[in-house]
Amino acid sequence: MAADPHASQFMTMLLKMMNPKRTIEITAIDPVRSWYEIGLPFIIKAGIEDKIDFIQSQALPILDNLLLVRKEGSFDFAFVDADKQNYGNYHERLMKLVKVGGVMVYDNTLWGGTVAKHDGDVPDEKKEGKALAAEFNRRIAADGRVEICLLPLGDGITICRRIS
């Protein structure tokens, strides 16, 4: 997402408007530290390294632990750009961790535009991602606990506001 200037600009504006106090970013929870280190020079340049607590782990166990040690609705904002097969699992946990009125943003929900194409028009290497993104989109579109907006910025950004 950081590679798309429109998506980055939008996310910056959204966060400034929201002014969240407690945020969680699933990309800051990763079993591979080198992914975090790629972005570290930008984090340092922005002067926010003291605000980021990178956790080297799979995300689901960390979210499960947060559900045990924090009260429901502890976070104002969540951003997810992680393994697509777990987006639904992340969503369910974040629905408990993010407060009513809070926002969850999911990246890559258009999967390079493939979600709108017939399978025959999608390269084999993108078919699994297309299926995962399409299933996640269907799932949250039917979720009455959130209001959603899917933006065609970058690789697709879906914004969910928790309403119940």
From TrEMBL:
Pfam families: Methyltransf_3 (PF01596)
Gene Ontology BP annotations: methylation
InterPro entries: Cation-dep_OMT, SAM-dependent_MTases_sf, SAM_O-MeTrfase
Record's function text: Methylates caffeoyl-CoA to feruloyl-CoA and 5-hydroxyferuloyl-CoA to sinapoyl-CoA. Plays a role in the synthesis of feruloylated polysaccharides. Involved in the reinforcement of the plant cell wall. Also involved in the responding to wounding or pathogen challenge by the increased formation of cell wall-bound ferulic acid polymers.
Family matches, as Gene3D superfamilies: Vaccinia Virus protein VP39
Keywords associated with the record: Methyltransferase, S-adenosyl-L-methionine, Transferase
MF GO annotations: O-methyltransferase activity; S-adenosylmethionine-dependent methyltransferase activity
The keyword S-adenosyl-L-methionine belongs to this UniProt entry's keyword annotation: yes
Signal peptide from the UniProt entry: none
Name of the featured protein: Caffeoyl-CoA O-methyltransferase
Family classification: Belongs to the class I-like SAM-binding methyltransferase superfamily. Cation-dependent O-methyltransferase family.
Coiled coil ranges: none
Native species: Linum tenue
SUPFAM superfamilies, alphabetized: S-adenosyl-L-methionine-dependent methyltransferases
